[in-house]
Structures are given as C-alpha cells and as structure tokens.
Write a structure and sequence with these properties.
Blueprint lengths: L1 H4 L4 H8 L3 H10 L8 H7 L10 H5 L2 H13 L6 H15 L2 E6 L3 E6 L2 H4 L25 H5 L1
Antiparallel strand pairs: 1-2
Helix pairs in contact: 2-3, 6-7
Length: 150
C-alpha cells in the first residue's frame, strides 16, 4: 500500500517482490483497493453489483466483460491494453450486430439480442431494478454503431 501511495505502479511493485503484476493487482482487488486512475471509475459506473455477485470470479475473466471494461476505459480517456483491445473489438462487433451485454445471474456477462424498447442506444441491458442516472451516458453506442445495431 505504501509503495502504491508513493507512486509505484503495480508492475514496479511486482518487480520489487519478484511476483507478477497480476498478482499485485489481484491482491489490491481482494483488499478492496483499486489501482489509480479511471479503473475505479469503471467499477463505480457499472450498474451491476459485481463485488457481491456469486459468480464474480467466473465473469471477470470473460471476454465480454473485458470488452465492456475496455469500452468504458476508452470513454473515460484511459489506455486499453493489447489484450483488452481484442476483447473490445469483439464487444463492438456484437454491438454492431444488434446485441447488448447483460449480466446473467448464472452465466455472467453474455450477449443478448438488442430490444430497442428496452435497450435504446445502450451497449448493455440496464438492470430493471437499477434506476438510470448519470452513469447511463457512458453506455451509449458509439457514433455509427447505434443505427447499425437496430
């Protein structure tokens, strides 16, 4: 914690302790801490309570969920890793082909056919039990994709 507060990246901390960067990030996530920058904003923007979801470990690694997070990172002006760029491309292809991402209680993140009456121009299926607020602006289809998705 002190190294991160001093400005060290997770990769730098990992090198210092001879572990992987992912191990450091996982440790921070398990402690309820998140890396600096817009990543925390992404977690806060999601309309789903992933931290309490019984299958959270299952869908955190799903390509669809990684693609959504990459989509949000771009919207927030953050960089997207090479691995996440592949997932983002897949995510945008699904959106362009008329699908949205929903969080299913058992299957985790999955694509479903867009319903214009329910989904409007969003890239996700907003949960019925969560009121739409300012966060919803982050989930609108990118220019040119909304019309292709209908």
């Amino acid at each position: 914690m002190k190294l991160e507060e001093a400005g060290f990246s997770h990769a730098e901390i990992a090198r210092r302790y001879d572990v992987s960067r992912q191990a450091v990030t996982k440790l921070y996530n398990n402690m309820g801490e998140y890396s600096r920058g817009p990543v925390r904003d992404i977690t806060d923007a999601l309309p789903w309570d992933i931290a309490r979801h019984p299958a959270k470990e299952k869908f955190r690694d799903q390509d669809a969920y990684i693609g959504l997070r990459a989509f949000l990172r771009l919207k927030l002006g953050a960089e997207v890793s090479r691995r996440s760029q592949v997932s983002l491309s897949t995510f945008l292809n699904h959106v362009q082909n008329g699908e949205v991402l929903e969080l299913h209680p058992v299957h985790g993140a999955r694509y479903v056919k867009r319903d214009p009456m329910i989904d409007g121009s969003l890239v996700i299926r907003w949960p019925e039990d969560v009121p739409q607020d300012d966060r919803v602006d982050l989930f609108h289809c990118p220019a040119g994709k909304a019309s292709a998705a209908h």
